[in-house]
Amino acid sequence: MAALVDSIAYFTNKLWEQRDTRVDGWPLMSSPLPAMAICLAYVFIVKVLGPKFMENRPAYDLRRVLLFYNLFQIVVNVWVFYELSRYGWLSGNYSFVCQPVDYSYDEAAVRVLRACYVFYLSKFVDLFDTFFFILRKKNNQITLLHIIHHGWIPTTLWPGIRFVCGGHGSFFAFLNSLVHVVMYFYYFLAAMGPQVQKYLGWKKYLTTFQMVQFIAASIHCFQLLFIDCDFPYLMSCWIGIHEVFFLLMFLNFYRHTYRKNKKMDSSSKSEINNNNNVSDRKKHM
């Protein structure tokens, strides 16, 4: 038993030596435990505390809060996307095939580092999406996909920020920040009220955009299995598996939500046509 403990301690120390020392001392970077604790607290609030709190209360009107919140999210994600574009993926210095992490304090490397870290912190802010659903009693929108998507990502992203902040692994942050700009712009418009919501019939295309993101990010990661690249293969596989998992989850959501609605619309139209035919026959009797 002692030998096993020593082996685990040795492995942990060796792994810790590979960390990105540039983020030493930054909030939430000393250990994955704080992020895990926040995620567990999130699940407890969503499944137990929140519903109990709202049980005998009317839904809150959070229109102004949501407008500010969504605008804030748009600004943050625009900044992240700009930084990762200007100093990373669209700078002409990054390779889409193989991009090692630059652990230096060069300006471009530090700008990418900060953008990735802010992207990571934004995932904790995203948790408020669910809290607002609870306060507005929109419990039908708190699906299993929603809870897993929000409650898992802060923990799964931690190794990437702690060990390989930048380089090949930052491609997901590059894509995801763009997706979130569009997503929160949609939510911003939706928060304006019914007069705008009637023009927002393109939500399913937003879901498609998210799935395209997962496909692109997974291909980008798994290509390292077939080429020689100075980027950790295990980390690349971890990110790739993460993308495939969410692709399958979103695909299942898309199939059950939009295709089901399409079938219901078709059934309703058929029923209306049948009723009209019956009425026409009665008129001619």
Task: Characterise this structure.
There is one protein chain. By secondary structure, this protein is mainly α. The chain has one domain (32-260). It is 73% helix and 0% strand. The protein contains ten helices and no strands. It has helices at residues 2-16, 33-54, 63-89, 107-125, 128-135, 144-163, 171-190, 194-197, 203-222, 233-284. The termini are far apart. Residues 268-273 and 281-285 have low confidence and may be disordered.
List key phrases describing it:
0% strand, mainly alpha, 285 residues, disordered C terminus
Question: How is the topology of this model organized?
Answer:
Layout lengths: L1 H15 L16 H22 L8 H27 L17 H19 L2 H8 L8 H20 L7 H20 L3 H4 L5 H20 L10 H52 L1
Helix pairs in contact: 2-5, 2-6, 3-4, 3-7, 4-6, 6-10, 7-9, 9-10
Question: Biggest sheet, in brief?
Answer: none
Overall mean pLDDT stands at 89
Strand-residue proportion: under 5%
Number of helices: 10
| Classification by helices and strands | mainly alpha
Tally of individual domains: 1
Sequence of secondary-structure elements:
HHHHHHHHHH
Q: Over all CA atoms, what is the radius of gyration? A: 23 Å
What are the low-pLDDT stretches, counting only 5+ consecutive residues below 50?
268-273, 281-285
| Helix proportion | over 70%
- Number of DSSP E strands: 0
Question: What is the end-to-end distance?
Answer: 90 Å
Q: Indicate the overall shape.
A: globular
